[in-house]
Amino acid sequence: MEYGIALDLGTSGFRAQAVDLKTGEVVSTAVTARHPLPGANVMDHLHFALEVGRDTAHFIVVAAINKLLKQLDIELSRVERIAVCGNPCQLSIFQNIEIRDLAWAGKRKLEKEGVRPPKRDAAVVEAWKLGLAVRSSAEVLVPPAIKHEVGADALAMMVKGGFLEEKGIALATDYGTNAEMALKVGDEIYTGSAAAGSAIEGQHIERGMLATSGAISDVNAENGGWRCYVLDNELVAQPGDIVDPRSGSLLNSGPMHGKAVGVTGTGVIAILEEGIRSGLISLPRINTPDRRIYLQDSLYFTENDLIEAGKAIGAIRAGHITLAEEAGISIDEVGTMYMAGASGFYVDAHKAQKVGLVPCSVSKIVQVGNTSLAMARELVANPEMLDKLQTIVNELRATHIMFATSKIFEQIYLLELSYWLQGMPIERYDSWLKKYGFRSSLSKEVTHAEVHKLFEKDIGVIGKKGLRVVWDVGMPLVTEIEGCTGCRKCEKECPERALKIMRKGSAYQISIRTDLCNGMSCLRCQKVCSEKVLDFKQLLNEAVSCHHGSKCSCCDKGG
Questions:
Q1: Where are the alpha helices (DSSP H) in 96-146?
Q2: Coil, strand, or helix at residue 377?
Q3: CA–CA separation, 397 vs 188, rounded Å?
Q4: Do 315 and 446 fall into the same domain?
Q5: Is residue 333 part of a domain?
Q6: Which of 190, 281, 423, 552 suits 374 as a labelling partner, its CA being 20 to 30 A distant?
């Protein structure tokens, strides 16, 4: 049997499927619980790669992919073809090509540093050149990017979901850590990418997790409490317990009792909607005795989680409004919404609309699932499609809006922060939109949209060998800290338990797991160091140098 492998390299984790090339059937599926690089968004990953070197970032990513491929339970020596999809950051690190153009905004900066941005056209690379643990002659197919930071995953969202054929004004968004979006007005397409943060996918949430088995994906008010819905081993939401959200008391036991281990991003959205509607949440507060909302199996949602979720939703809604203003329309002229990605698929679309992830005017919502993995799977079966995708990109008239340098986005996102973090009334939000001279308004009544789900599950078929989750996908970076007293304040302060302090003789070493570390956006370990000897950047560089000085565990090569 000859195999193909479809790969989706997401900002919060990787997904892979083995395909029987003769029959086209999916054999098995494997996913990672996290991304192998430190941080929770594109900029964190870029920052890490620039700080420690592109080669090291590439090795860590490829090592994680190789762990994932082993879980597919196939003979990797019989892999003939791999198709990989993802945003420009993930694909560039995977291919080990220039990334500085993705990290730095502005042509002058790039010219000053002598950076020549790659075209990021469709490419075919031999697997051995990338370090993949499959047949060395296997071909790796990489789809083209549309614009600077809108990549193959956004292209997949447009092609696989039917967005390009839409006649009216339509908006498409791949809901994730890096929320890529496109607005179609006539024959014009406006694109953008918002660094929403990881709360939308269940990360940076105290009891959060990605959309895997055991995740609470939805909640509904029922019989005086909240019914929790938990993803089973087939990633289908099943009824869990009914609990009192104020105390966590069990009111009624459900089929998924005792099986919930965390809350995914869609569950976070549901908690927000139900909480605001019922009065348990009055932004920015949770109106319970201990400022927590309780779910089944001792899980809970905190005010800090509320802040993280608000920042994520705010960034996405600010992106939507920015595209509309740049296109010369009001956000309430959008009639159709395409929701892609795991969060966009599993979320209750009506709840998403009520909290602001979908414009209030939208009358039709299409939930398209994981288009990135679906397109990679189609490429595996039909490699000639790669040329077709390049033609589409060449012809696609896209105007890309850099939110990082957009004054419109800056103004709107500040309003979003005031709404979510300070409880600014929506009417005042609207008055500020008018003062800025914008066309858009948010205080109009929410339309009860017609919802269409293209598939039953985000990953439609997982194969006869089932789904496996890879939890440990990072690499431990170890180095000595000169002047460390071993107080372990940094170890205790780390929110993800990503680092450990170890004694070696008279000195102390620090070990950091890259997949657990929140990266440069956190730095809590550095801030809490009482001796001020922990410099995170220096630590990373020294740890990487240590690894590459001898037999290297991250790349299986000598130094």
A1: 100-103, 107-112, 127-130
A2: helix
A3: 6
A4: yes
A5: yes
A6: 190
Q: What is the pLDDT of residues 68-98, one digit of tens each?
A: 999 999 999 999 999 999 988 999 999 999 9
Please check whether residues 192 and 339 belong to one and the same domain: yes
Residues 321 and 431 in one domain: yes
Q: Say if residue 44 is in the same domain as residue 144.
A: yes
For the stretch 511-537, pLDDT in tens is 999 998 988 778 889 999 999 999 888
In sequence order, what are the beta bridge partners of 367? 339, 453
pTM to 2 decimal places: 0.77
**In terms of domains, do 145 and 158 share one?**
no
Cβ contact 9:444 at 8 Å: no
Rounded to 5 degrees, φ, ψ at 41 are: -150, 175
Three-state secondary structure readout of 262-326: EECHHHHHHHHHHHHHHCCEECCEECCCCCEEECHHHCEEEHHHHHHHHHHHHHHHHHHHHHHHH
How is residue 444 annotated by DSSP? S
Average pLDDT over residues 121-150: 91
Q: For residue 552, what pLDDT band results from cuts at 50, 70 and 90?
A: very low
What percent of the chain lies above the pLDDT cut of 90? 62
Interatomic CA distance for residues 212 and 236, integer angstroms: 10
Q: Which residues in 395-432 are b (16+ Cβ under 10 Å) and which e? A: ebebebbebbebebbebbbebbbbbbeeebeeeebbee
The overall longest dimension of the chain from CA atoms, in Å, is: 71
Residues 221 and 233 sit within 8 Å (Cβ to Cβ): no
| Closest to 120 (Cα-Cα) out of 95, 144, 155 | 144
- Domain limits for position 466: 3-149+375-384+462-470
Q: Where are the beta strands (DSSP E) in 387-433?
A: 398-400
Q: Residue 85 carries which side chain, given as an amino acid letter?
A: C
Give the integer Cα–Cα distance in Å for 180 and 182: 7
pLDDT on residue 546: 56
- 235 phi-psi bin (left φ>0, alpha ψ -120 to 50, beta other): left
